[in-house]
């Protein structure tokens, strides 16, 4: 059970964190049930099963997003799709000694969906990717990419946000990260009769550690009239694409 935090506006903010060891490839968090009165989320976390829903993006060799898979077919129509790009800090002098360096890449992907079973369309998506070098004693940021998507066919807009990427440390280079914050909204959500509903990813961050571990976390909130609770945060995926 995930106990959410009640915000000053009376909404529920939920925090989800996932991690992968160097020998693990992916992990999925799924929302099972949500109770807005108690601000509680029934959830489960596990490894995707073969033949299950595909949630991953397809990456170019340089780490930028090439295209996405999984929910693309059900979101057919004029999608608003943006790639924020790759941010390269390769000129930073590596703090680790030569030899024994491993390069890894991974992403955290979170989505919001319309009510299911109909239409059950993915209406917002944020995918954060980081590439880093590690050798057990330090981590160096190599590159990052940010992909966000919203279904403007049904009135969804991206209102604001920010991104950041770099090294992080507690006394030394111990992790690399990509972090971003996003505010989506929709004034045409049918169940809300013209009232605007909001979805926040505040923030979403993916980390690559000196140990080779990959982790990700996201705070998400739905805000607006009660109809907002028809939206779901069904799936969050953490996946390693280069080890």
Features:
mainly beta; six-stranded antiparallel beta sheet; single chain; eight-stranded antiparallel beta sheet
Structure explained in plain terms:
By secondary structure, the protein is an all-beta fold. The chain contains no helices and 16 strands. The chain has strands spanning 2-3, 5-6, 12-20, 26-35, 40-46, 57-59, 65-68, 80-86, 102-113, 122-134, 139-150, 156-169, 173-186, 197-209, 214-223, 235-242. The strands form 3 sheets. The chain has an 8-stranded antiparallel sheet with strand order 1-5-4-16-9-10-11-8, with no helix packed on it. A 6-stranded antiparallel sheet has the order 2-3-15-14-13-12, with no helix packed on it. It starts with a strand and ends with a strand.
Would you kindly provide a brief summary of this structure?
With 243 residues, the chain is mainly beta. Helix content is 0%, strand content 58%.
**Sequence stretches where pLDDT stays below 50 over 5 or more residues:** 51-97
Mean pLDDT: 78
- Report the radius of gyration as a whole number of Å: 18 Å
User: How do the strands line up in the largest sheet?
Assistant: 1-5-4-16-9-10-11-8
- Morphology: elongated
The ordered H/E elements are: EEEEEEEEEEEEEEEE
Query: DSSP helix count?
Result: 0
Outline the biggest β-sheet: 8 strands, antiparallel
Distance between the termini: 32 Å
Helix content: under 10%
Q: What percentage of the residues does DSSP assign to strands (E)? A: over 45%
Class derived from helix and strand content = mainly beta
Number of strands: 16
